[in-house]
Write a structure and sequence with these properties.
Elements (H helix, E strand, L loop, with lengths): L1 E4 L10 E4 L9 E11 L1 H7 L3 H7 L10 E9 L11 E5 L8 E5 L4 E2 L6 H5 L2 H14 L7 E4 L5 H12 L3 E5 L5 H7 L3 E3 L4 H5 L4 E6 L3 H6 L4 E9 L5 H10 L3 E3 L7 H12 L7 E6 L3 H9 L6 E5 L1
Parallel strand pairs: 8-9, 8-11, 9-10, 11-12, 12-13, 14-15
Antiparallel strand pairs: 1-2, 3-4, 3-6, 3-15, 4-5, 5-7
Helix pairs in contact: 1-2, 4-5
Bound molecules: NADP nicotinamide-adenine-dinucleotide phosphate.
């Protein structure tokens, strides 16, 4: 089977499609034919040798990225009775999603409900878990509160806008003008170009800043948070810097690391089936074009999600 791997940290061209042995199936696992794998900034940062992801795999190269997967069951381990051949499954896995096939613990995957497309399920797990956990577990967003979401048109952002609206919050979304209609369509209450200083100056303060950009951009948004308000800064590499600046202003700030929670994922995919949430997929690349998919995510201007097709 074919798999995209890196042999060494570096630029997107380090991703090579190679032939690898089919992994052995353990009794508790399923073998999936990968239909789509989500491409996330963490994949590209880790490939480049940056952050906690690279630290975790630096002694385990070659490495195949890919945490968000959707596929159909090709083979069942002897102990697996919750699924059948051909079932459509998705989930947040430990890596290796950029492969024609992968073996995964059956309990790590969920059924894609009727009415939910393969593509939407593929782009949901990492971005959706981050959006939901960031807004609720870390941000404790309440109905009636104002939340400012940066990178609102991106993978995590476009789901965050919809989930915050579902919680009856007032959503202020930051994006380039070409994404404004997209964000109005997702239900944002106020949409602002983050390069328009006059519009930012006129912004009424918010209860929660959901910072999806980090660094100096995240710091620059702190002045829009109400006294005593809350900040969740999502990019881990700059979290310390943004938290320190927020605390210096008397704000309550935290970083976060998304975790796997299949009950939450089941709830999110049900919301898609009910028409309350949608995953926008803006680009789909064949597996062989992994480097182009990474260059797209590294542009920093992806709308919604990017997928690889198995
Ligand atoms: N801690 C965790 O567990 C965790 C989990 C998931 C993601 N993350 C991190 O969270 C961040 C967002 O992830 P993602 O998947 O949503 O990324 P993404 O899809 O690549 O985000 C792209 C979006 O960023 C926007 N953007 C770029 N520069 C901006 C700026 N200065 N101000 C406002 N928006 C800006 C772009 O908007 P325009 O095109 O409109 O300019 C684009 O829509 C990444 O750093 C990622 O690594 C962390």
């Amino acid at each position: 089977m074919k798999q995209l791997v890196i042999q060494a940290f570096g630029d997107a061209d380090q991703l090579k499609l190679v032939e690898v042995e089919r992994p052995v199936l353990a009794p508790s696992q399923v073998r999936l034919k990968m239909h789509y794998a989500g491409v996330n900034p963490i994949d590209a940062k880790t490939r480049a040798g940056l952050g906690w992801g690279a630290q975790a795999i630096k002694d385990k190269l070659p490495w195949s990225p890919g945490f968000e997967v959707m596929g159909t069951v090709l083979e069942l381990g002897l102990e697996v009775n919750r699924y059948q051949l051909g079932d459509r499954l998705f989930g947040l896995v430990a890596g290796g999603g950029y492969s024609e096939e992968l073996v995964v613990e059956a309990e790590e995957l969920l059924l894609v409900p009727e009415g939910v497309s393969d593509e939407m399920a593929a782009g949901l797990s990492l971005a959706g878990a981050t959006a939901w956990q960031g807004l609720t577990d870390y941000g404790t967003l309440q109905a009636g509160e104002r939340v400012l979401i940066s990178a609102a048109a991106g993978g995590v952002g476009h789901l965050s806008v919809q989930l915050a609206k579902d919680l009856d919050a007032t959503v202020v979304a930051l994006a380039s003008p070409n994404n404004h209609d997209f964000l109005w369509g997702l239900g944002a209450d106020e949409v602002i170009d983050y390069r328009d200083q006059a519009a930012l100056d006129a912004l009424a303060p918010v209860d929660l800043l959901f910072d999806l950009v980090g660094g100096t951009s995240g710091e620059a948004l702190l002045s829009h948070v109400k006294p005593g308000g809350r900040v969740v800064t999502v990019p881990t590499i700059t979290a310390e810097q943004v938290i320190a600046a927020a605390e210096a202003r008397g704000l309550k700030a935290t970083g976060m690391l998304r975790r796997i929670d299949n009950e939450q994922l089941a709830q999110l995919v049900r919301m898609i089936a009910q028409g309350r949430l949608r995953v926008t997929v803006s680009r789909i690349f064949p597996l062989v074009d992994g480097p182009a998919a990474h260059r797209q995510i590294e542009s920093g201007h992806t709308q919604g999600k990017v997928l690889l097709k198995g």
